[in-house]
């Protein structure tokens, strides 16, 4: 028995015990060295050189047996290595310097733990480290393979789900109506359209391209489009159309559309506008109404008006006046809506609120400015003349989006309804942002059906650019 230590922390006995070890790492021989069968020396002297060389520095096998600690424990994992790729693990079999006999597979099966420990115990420290690294790489490769398979299964499930949703969205109900889909997300996250790029093209190419576009968009007018251009009014033809152009509304809408495309330097081409309005159909009346300012006329507007007069339009040009324009009742109402809300503005005018006795609050008078006067009213008059003078109703083409009441008239929308009631067909040509909501009203569209048609100039913006 080793002598007790002189102090509680003395390791002299342990060091002597380890130093007296002469057996193999995995050997389970008695702790006292046996004598040699020849009677001289110990069994250690009789061991072969190979047997002696198997001694490993730092082996605690005999110490564990002496202390009664079982050696049947799980082999600890090696240090964490970077996760290898499947290609590296499948293409490598360990270190290049390792010989085939050094490779020991400890993961292909689940042998008895004691056997595994014995196999590791029979190796050197370096070989055990390599074996554990290979086992860890193999384990991680299997985990990566399992994750890859699960991911592939998830992708297949998602693809089947998307395909199923697409099929359900195209199904129709028993009445033939397409199933409605929620657009809440679209309202919360409105998409910003990319600006349309415009470039000045040669006039001949632009006109030919636009002519081809009209042939595709209006096949019912193909017989007129291929006929010679008509510069004079054909009042005798019952098919003659009546065209009314509100130049201010059209030019302002064109400038606003150019701002959205970030190309504000172009002028509008009246040639293409006239071709879209007429489409070479017989024309009974052409009316162009606009305004000018003698103190500072716009060159682009003057050019636009001159070309309209050259192709046979009746020109109604009025000089702008410097005045304070009084707001209509409708304009004052919507101004109050913006200021105090719809409910409050309605209560004041209907007399249902607490402020009904005092009425709407006084408004600050507007500053005087240059404004049009009588332009819309002149077009309203010409429209009424066509409705009254023509015995057989034809088609009325109105180039404006204005629908509000004018200063001295009830507005374009009211006159459009008068024409529709008398059996006329009406084509409204305007810019989308300049179109009054009354023309888009569902009840209004359902009431008049095919007799009323809207043509948005936004679809033809690239051809409306003058070059």
TrEMBL record:
Species, as recorded: Dendryphion nanum
Gene Ontology biological process terms from the UniProt entry: protein import into nucleus
InterPro entries associated with the record:
Mog1
> Which terms does the record give in the GO molecular function aspect?
guanyl-nucleotide exchange factor activity; small GTPase binding
A GO CC annotation recorded here is: nucleus
UniProt name for this protein: NYN domain-containing protein
Q: Where is this region: Disordered?
A: 25-50, 72-141, 169-201, 347-368
Q: Where is the composition biased (Basic residues)?
A: 124-137
| Bias type Polar residues, positions | 347-357
